[in-house]
Amino acid sequence: MIAPRGAAAIRTAVGLVGAAGILAGAAALPDLDVRPVAGPSRASSTPVTDAEFLCPGTELTGIDDVPDVSTSVRVVAGTAPAAVLGVDPPASTGAVTLAVASGPTVPDAAGGERTTQRGAVVTTTASEDGVVRAAGSGGLAPALLAAQESDPREDQVAGLASTACPAPAAESWLTGGSAEPGRQERLLLLNPGANPVTVDIAVAGRRGPIVTGAATGVVVPARSRHSVLLDALAPDEAAPFFHVTTRGGFVGAVLADHWLDGVTPRGFADVPGLAAPATEQVIPAVTGPGSVRLHAPGEQDAVVEVRLLTPDGPRALPDRAGVLRVPAGTTAEVPLTKLPSGVSALQIRSDEPVVAAAQLTPVKARDFAWAPASAPIRGLAGAVYPALDSAADRTRTLALASTGGRARVGVTTVADGRAQTRELSIADDATLTLDLSLSDAVWVRRVAGNGDVRAALLTTGGSGAKAVIDARPLTAARISVTTEPVEPVGPLG
Question: Taking the model in full, what pTM does it have?
């Protein structure tokens, strides 16, 4: 066991390189205890010059002894327009590239689709069982984001699923799936580093922690994707949560939730990592009916209030369904019925930290979506997505919510490389929506006010059995890296 001083040293050293996205060398840190150089802070901030995301590609492939299900996956990547960065990007031209692998191993950046225009979005299609690498270099590294979207209409899978390509992290909180026959959840683990990473998966359900040896010591090879069948860990659990932690490096994590009811496909969704446990959670984009799923991961029971946020302010859930106790270590669900028309948000307040997401289930639809709770926007956040076909019956909506005060946000939409910016005001504990159907990227920054702003992208279309739905939060954009000189003070321990 490393003494606290050594642990702090490791955090300091990782902070020096990790913020720049240099994750591959984390396991090779020297065995030295370090501290910031004495005296006034000499920290400096400079724009990033290299950025990389791994996108999972085809979600329903790559597990031994489990039949692959074919899906067509479009992957997009792009950068924020220069006017919204807040800093001058590096002088070098740079490029954004999308490289497609033919299997689970990460491809080189050479070849593939590319753009040298800041603010433009580049698109490609994933191979049958391969990951996709999105990379930004030079002047196109700051504020790089990537995402993927699947829209299958096959015998075994139907629905709309999308996710931002995740940044590697030491831990992730996820939920998805249920106990219905034919419901299958896969955990997609993405390791961008040069060394294998060991992953542990803690599972919790309605009765508390679920112990399973298969969830410990999962090895994700270097520069690869590895998939885990989660419903094999808790096959009868109706409301599972998954806590992913790593040893020896960092991984990106996405949960793919697929439901095949006999021979009838009932939907398909990707779930990115949820906001970390907190006493306030906000889900920015909700449309009923559905349910909100909660987990109290601490050692104390959580008394929770769930309420709606609307353009006119907060509103209690119908039938007094919004107040409940979640026993320590367990999960619970609250039905979302009789919701107002249009798009609302959910605010979850608790006396103990909780994790949350909402499942959205349109009436008569053969699709569903998971809407995660997300963290407040502290700088620039955005989303990139494939442009909608003009003939498609689809709508994309930006859902904004402010809690704890009023907020004014700058919203920049991009279409075919052309940017348009407007400022919008959000009332305290209220919501606002904006149509994004004619765009292929959106960027949001709070410019005034003291409200905590969250934002999500909601895509809907069709009706009845042909209805589709998808929701995902906007992603924080990494623009600069802050470095601070350190000095060795002795060996660890």
Answer: 0.89
